[in-house]
Design a protein that fits this description.
Layout: E1 8-12, H1 18-33, E2 40-46, E3 49-55, H2 59-62, E4 67-73, E5 76-80, H3 83-93, H4 106-112, E6 121-126, H5 127-146, H6 150-165, E7 171-176
Antiparallel strand pairs: 1-5, 2-3, 3-4, 4-5, 6-7
Helix pairs in contact: 5-6
Length: 181
C-alpha cells in the first residue's frame, strides 16, 4: 500500500470538560466496534497520555494501515488517522518535535492570511493533497480488488471519475462563528 498522509483534528472544549467529552466519544467508539468483529478498539498509554485506537481490518493480513486514534491531553481532544500522527501531535504539544509546523507551510500561511482572525475555531483543509492521496489509495484498492472482481473495478472507475471532477478544489480555510458553538 502506498504511504498515506496523516490527518488530525484537535479540539478544545470548555475548561474542565476534557474527561467528560473523552468518555462520551469513547462510548460512541465502543458502539461502533460492537458492529463487526473486524473493528477493534484498544487503548494504550503513550508518554502519560491514554490513546484509543480503532482499526477496521487485520493490518498484518490485509495491509490497510488506516486507523482512528483518539487521545486527550488536558482539555484538548485529538483525532488522528494513524499512530504516527498521534506521536507527531503529542511531540508538538510537548515542544519536542523536530518536524516543521503547519505555520512553516506556505500554503497554510497563504490560506489563513485570507480569513479574519478566529474567535473560536479555524479550519484548514488541503483538498489537493487529500484528493491526490485518495487517488493513490483507490489505485492500490483497484489493483487488489479489480483483478478478481469486475463489479469492484467498475465502481472504482466511477470513484476515479468523481475524483477527477473534484480536482477543482485546492485549499479550504475558514472560521467557525462563536455564535454557532
Amino acid at each position: 500500500m502506498p504511504a498515506m498522509y496523516e490527518y488530525y483534528v484537535l479540539t478544545r472544549g470548555k475548561p474542565g470538560s476534557g474527561e467528560a467529552n473523552l468518555s462520551a466519544i469513547v462510548a460512541m467508539l465502543k458502539e461502533i466496534a460492537a458492529l463487526s468483529e473486524k473493528i477493534k478498539l484498544s487503548s494504550a498509554d503513550r508518554d502519560g497520555v491514554t490513546v484509543w485506537s480503532m482499526t477496521f481490518a487485520d493490518v498484518e493480513k490485509e495491509g490497510f494501515p488506516f486507523s482512528v486514534e483518539l487521545f486527550r491531553k488536558d482539555d484538548v481532544i485529538g483525532f488522528a488517522s494513524s499512530k504516527a500522527a498521534v506521536d507527531e501531535v503529542l511531540a508538538f504539544m510537548a515542544g519536542k518535535s523536530g518536524k516543521p509546523s503547519m505555520f512553516d507551510n506556505p500554503r497554510f500561511v497563504e490560506a489563513v492570511a485570507q480569513v479574519p482572525p478566529p474567535e473560536n475555531a479555524l479550519s484548514f483543509f488541503d483538498a489537493k493533497l487529500f484528493l491526490n492521496d485518495l487517488r493513490r489509495m483507490m489505485g492500490f484498492v483497484g489493483e487488489q480488488a479489480g483483478k478478481d472482481d469486475a463489479d469492484a473495478a467498475k465502481w472504482l472507475g466511477v470513484v476515479r471519475t468523481v475524483l477527477d471532477q473534484a480536482d477543482v478544489m485546492d485549499l479550504l480555510a475558514g472560521l467557525i462563528d462563536k455564535s454557532l458553538v
